[in-house]
């Protein structure tokens, strides 16, 4: 990359910048993936000197090794800070413009990337100020917005209409960080780079698919925020729906950003709205031992809150490939996430932590001569311990014809020595810097996603036929869950 690039982080003192953006930018820097002319500008209402800002960044990056510490010090030399209050008119944005222009090489076109790590309610006003003061025909400008993109279909459409006059669709990067995760990106290669999977990737061979994201922790320290969002907006409408699209879409004409996003949008339009009758909603209470607090024990959460911290529902894709296949979508906080001993004794032990995975169960064998065979199952672990496992049947060693369960295992940490896998935000930032929209959610794709979930959200808000099941912190979820999932013939790992 030869371009001079200015990366502007609006919300530079916030949690997102500290936990994700500064470490990601430093990792790109140490991997030599930022051009020599790159400059980073932090923007925030909090007054900070340059030294205070860089100290804040160093603590966020958390580098201790001598060599990396030296590189981190050099990284901080390309970073700058401006105290800017977004509600005080254009003056501060003009100061930002002047600083960016001072870095500009007259012989090169400057690329400007504005990352709005800000509350969504001020996206529009800030984007308008950036347009007036910091965007011109002499530069290439792009803006990144974080989820949530609205609260439902109507507000999402409204947000797009208000951004559109200032930013074209190819200048807007709507970030869903799950699209940057290694195993989510691997879905394209797994599906379309392996004919053995492509041959069985349909309703004739697949019985059901579960896409789940369970978190061992609750909403500690962010209950007030979560209560206004809920598990459907926080996880299911975006993360799980994006994974659903990657699993079910047809092979794109090419792997360009537009062709990929076109196929995702096309298949999501074939998913009817999920039905409240096929949905379980839950909210966690204190743990069985009383050590972990319940959701409503958080002082920031209303005591009469009806916010769902758990949801499982079933979606269908209405086309010939997927006719009748249930997609069981599950997300929950404060849940037990550890797994039983695995068939492969050399894999790292499973931990009780957040877990995201896709489980694709194939139909039973019809060979009458074989008894006690299990489902073939393809398991794609997104986090932790990224990898792919294929459960299959084999003959037990010996003279008799008996079957045993075995598996093929592609766990990243098992096949690569000390893998230095990039974090999701590294991939997302790198693509945004290069103008690659592959990992960005397009407007029509977003609209199709909201159409799936908005009717359910409306019913929940109006309390129409909604029952909130209680489950203990650290449990496997509501009591009805096992029977519900079993009704779709799904067999989980513990069965």
Automatic annotation (TrEMBL):
<keyword id="KW-0313">Glucose metabolism</keyword>
<dbReference type="InterPro" id="IPR036291">
    <property type="entry name" value="NAD(P)-bd_dom_sf"/>
</dbReference>
<dbReference type="Pfam" id="PF00479">
    <property type="entry name" value="G6PD_N"/>
</dbReference>
<dbReference type="Pfam" id="PF02781">
    <property type="entry name" value="G6PD_C"/>
</dbReference>
<dbReference type="GO" id="GO:0009051">
    <property type="term" value="P:pentose-phosphate shunt, oxidative branch"/>
</dbReference>
<dbReference type="GO" id="GO:0050661">
    <property type="term" value="F:NADP binding"/>
</dbReference>
<dbReference type="InterPro" id="IPR001282">
    <property type="entry name" value="G6P_DH"/>
</dbReference>
<feature type="domain" description="Glucose-6-phosphate dehydrogenase NAD-binding">
    <location>
        <begin position="8"/>
        <end position="186"/>
    </location>
</feature>
<comment type="function">
    <text>Catalyzes the rate-limiting step of the oxidative pentose-phosphate pathway, which represents a route for the dissimilation of carbohydrates besides glycolysis.</text>
</comment>
<keyword id="KW-0119">Carbohydrate metabolism</keyword>
<dbReference type="GO" id="GO:0005829">
    <property type="term" value="C:cytosol"/>
</dbReference>
<dbReference type="GO" id="GO:0004345">
    <property type="term" value="F:glucose-6-phosphate dehydrogenase activity"/>
</dbReference>
<feature type="domain" description="Glucose-6-phosphate dehydrogenase C-terminal">
    <location>
        <begin position="189"/>
        <end position="486"/>
    </location>
</feature>
<dbReference type="InterPro" id="IPR019796">
    <property type="entry name" value="G6P_DH_AS"/>
</dbReference>
<comment type="similarity">
    <text>Belongs to the glucose-6-phosphate dehydrogenase family.</text>
</comment>
<dbReference type="InterPro" id="IPR022675">
    <property type="entry name" value="G6P_DH_C"/>
</dbReference>
<protein>
    <recommendedName>
        <fullName>Glucose-6-phosphate 1-dehydrogenase</fullName>
        <ecNumber>1.1.1.49</ecNumber>
    </recommendedName>
</protein>
<dbReference type="InterPro" id="IPR022674">
    <property type="entry name" value="G6P_DH_NAD-bd"/>
</dbReference>
<keyword id="KW-0521">NADP</keyword>
<comment type="pathway">
    <text>Carbohydrate degradation; pentose phosphate pathway; D-ribulose 5-phosphate from D-glucose 6-phosphate (oxidative stage): step 1/3.</text>
</comment>
<keyword id="KW-0560">Oxidoreductase</keyword>
<dbReference type="GO" id="GO:0006006">
    <property type="term" value="P:glucose metabolic process"/>
</dbReference>
């Amino acid at each position: 990359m030869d371009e001079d690039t200015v990366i502007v982080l609006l919300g530079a003192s916030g949690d997102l910048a500290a936990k994700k953006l500064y470490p990601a930018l430093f990792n790109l820097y140490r991997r030599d993936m930022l051009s020599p002319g790159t400059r980073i500008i932090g923007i925030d209402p909090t007054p900070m000197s340059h030294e205070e800002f860089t100290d804040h960044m160093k603590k966020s990056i958390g580098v201790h090794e001598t060599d990396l510490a030296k590189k981190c010090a050099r990284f901080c030399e390309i970073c700058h800070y401006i105290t800017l209050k977004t509600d005080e008119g254009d003056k501060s944005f003009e100061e930002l413009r002047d600083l960016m222009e001072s870095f500009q090489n007259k012989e090169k076109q400057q690329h400007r990337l504005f990352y709005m790590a800000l509350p969504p309610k001020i996206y529009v006003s800030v984007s308008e100020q950036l347009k007036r003061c910091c965007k011109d025909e002499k530069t290439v400008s792009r803006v990144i917005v974080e989820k949530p993109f609205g609260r439902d279909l109507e507000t999402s459409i409204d947000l797009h209409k208000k951004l559109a006059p200032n930013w074209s669709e190819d200048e807007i990067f709507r970030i869903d960080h799950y699209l940057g995760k290694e195993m989510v990106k691997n879905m394209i290669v797994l599906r379309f780079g392996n004919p053995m999977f492509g041959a069985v990737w349909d309703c004739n061979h697949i019985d059901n698919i579960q896409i789940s994201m369970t978190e061992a922790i609750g909403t500690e320290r962010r209950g007030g925020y979560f209560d206004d969002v809920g598990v459907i907006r926080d996880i299911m409408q975006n993360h799980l729906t994006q994974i659903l699209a990657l699993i079910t879409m047809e092979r794109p004409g090419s792997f360009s950003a537009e062709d990929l996003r076109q196929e995702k949008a096309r298949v999501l339009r074939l998913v009817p709205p999920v039905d409240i009758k096929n949905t379980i909603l839950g909210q966690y209470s204190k743990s069985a031992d009383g050590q972990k607090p319940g959701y409503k024990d958080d002082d920031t959460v209303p005591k009469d809150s009806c916010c769902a911290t758990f949801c499982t529902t079933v979606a269908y894709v209405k086309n010939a490939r997927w006719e009748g296949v249930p997609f069981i979508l599950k997300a929950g906080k404060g849940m037990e996430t550890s797994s039983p001993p695995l068939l492969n004794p050399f894999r790292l032990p499973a931990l009780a932590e957040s877990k995201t995975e896709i489980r694709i169960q194939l139909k039973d064998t019809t060979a009458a001569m074989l008894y006690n065979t299990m489902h073939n199952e393809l398991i794609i672990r997104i986090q932790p311990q990224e990898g792919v496992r294929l459960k299959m049947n084999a003959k037990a060693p010996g003279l008799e014809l008996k079957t045993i369960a075995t598996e093929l295992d592609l766990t990243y940490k098992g096949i690569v020595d000390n893998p230095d896998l990039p974090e999701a935000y590294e991939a997302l930032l790198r693509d945004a810097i290069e103008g690659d929209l592959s990992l960005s959610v397009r407007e029509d794709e977003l609209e199709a996603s909201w159409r799936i979930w908005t009717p359910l959200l409306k019913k929940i808000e109006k309390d129409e036929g909604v029952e909130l099941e209680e489950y203990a912190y650290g449990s496997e979820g509501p009591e009805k869950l096992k029977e519900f999932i079993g009704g779709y013939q799904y067999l989980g790992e513990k069965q």
